[in-house]
Amino acid sequence: MGGMPCKPTNEELQALVCRVPATCRKAAEALWRADVLLVCTGAGFSADSGLAVYKDIAEVEAYQGLGLSYHDLCRPEWLHRDPELFYGFWGACYNDYRETEPHEGYRLLRRWRDERFADSEVG
Fold it and tell me: Distance between CA 100 and CA 102 in Å, rounded?
């Protein structure tokens, strides 16, 4: 940690490229045997469907005029301090998520869940 990433040499890169098919096969076999699949994504997964990422959610003139950022708006005291602001912000977020069509990655994950993990004792 702390070191700068380095670029592989041409020899190292060729060795990595040669191992890709076998590595992908091993990964596919491990997924096939798995009882549970945990998928962790970043904000980009939702952003690919057109949803705003955290830093952009509060980029609304009304919030900017009040000097509020996303982190400010997430504080629960807004429910008591200014319920209209609280419900307006969270209602807009909720509506965006309900009205946005998920991209193909979501359908792929759902299909994997349904086909491979729906009957898992763990899941």
Answer: 6
